[in-house]
Input
Amino acid sequence: MKKKEVPQDKSNLESANFRELCYAVDDNGEYTTAHSTGWDPKKIALDNAIEEINARIADAKNRVIKGETSPIEYYMELHKMDVGILASYVGFWQWKVKRHFKPSIFKKLSDKTLNKYAEAFEISIEELQNISK
Amino acid sequence: MEIDFTHHQSAHCENGVVSNLMKHNGFSVSEPMVFGIGSGLLFCYIPLLKVNHAPVITYRALPGHIFKKFAKRTGVKMKREKFKNPKEAKARLDENLEKNNPVGLQVGVYNLVYFPDEYRFHFNAHNMVVYGKEGNRYLISDPVMEDVTSLSEKELEKVRFAKGAFSPKGHMYYPISFPEKLELETAIVKGIKDTCKAMLAPVSFVGVKGIHKIAGLIRKWPKKKGVKTANHYLGQVVRMQEEIGTGGGGFRYIYAAFLQEAGKLLGNEKLIELSKEMTEIGDLWRDFALEASRIYKNRSAQTDSYNKVADQLDHIANLEKVFFKKLKKAI
Output
């Protein structure tokens, strides 16, 4: 990549006011660094990934409302986690976390268990129990 | 309390921390030099592991490896500590800062408040330097950022004790002793040999073979996984290759910069020539990313277009095979 070809497209980096460093060659063929504000192929990939996450969040929310899953799954998606990551934050086995997705099991969880989830998501137990809040 | 520490922005966090800590201790070592000596370049498809519900490819060595190899090959001694208890981790950090010793930390990205939201994923192999403390805020030199920043005690604890794959467990590291003179020459040769070995490894998911493997998977994705998932997977491949930290072209440009610098240092013309070749290969990786982005932008799913990008990867793999064989002979 030539230094003058280092892309300066719009990207999500703008919001944090930073540019990333790229390596490129100058006119004499010497390697140097140059700042890039972004590159469209990356922005599209990232935007798609975010869209995918948002779709997962919306889907989980729907299923909570329909009573098909517990709010834990919704908050897990909201925090871009998967079962493995959530399990390591709360210190349970993955099968146990999955079990807590069942609304009937979720209703019976102790405050101690609920608190672990609430802490992982940085919310109160009330917010954990009621996603519309 | 602020240690007199100069922040230099780098493309990649791990190289950047090493380079900045070396410079702080009076050894001028560039980011590409750290990357090359530490055998940072790689291609590896990690079977079974999924991140963001998509397969994982890495274009670089495992977290911490660049650092470890660089230190070993240059004769720098490193102290590394991990902690179970966050309080102990904080106390050890404070102790070092009191002694005017800036330290490297491994952290998780998800709770790094100064990162744009869109970039905050559960990725635990980010690196930064802490170079002081003012009140209850730690002074942070994050190598991928243009300028220094700061984090509160609580914020820093969160990122040091992030959970999930490669959880940092408070991981802190810093150089404790240096050789009288850095013997870069021998270190460069070792670094290059190691990289050639990895890239030409006879393992189906590593190096050149790994690139062919991914090309093969890409051909199958649209039929096997459906358009939506195939596009999601392809997007992740591009993100791993180009997102913050790679310096462009899946680290190929940084590596080319290393070969150029190494060629001059060793007086080896062949390395300088090979640097040019690596740049051209980097350009082909960029072309692949561009072509792939057209697929997921249009949400098209003609098997043809997937085959086309897979062909590009196969072509790159063939070139890299020849390239690393030549590189092995050049030193």
Q: What stands out?
A: The longest helix of chain B spans residues 269-298. Chain B has two domains: 13-37+77-177, 184-330.
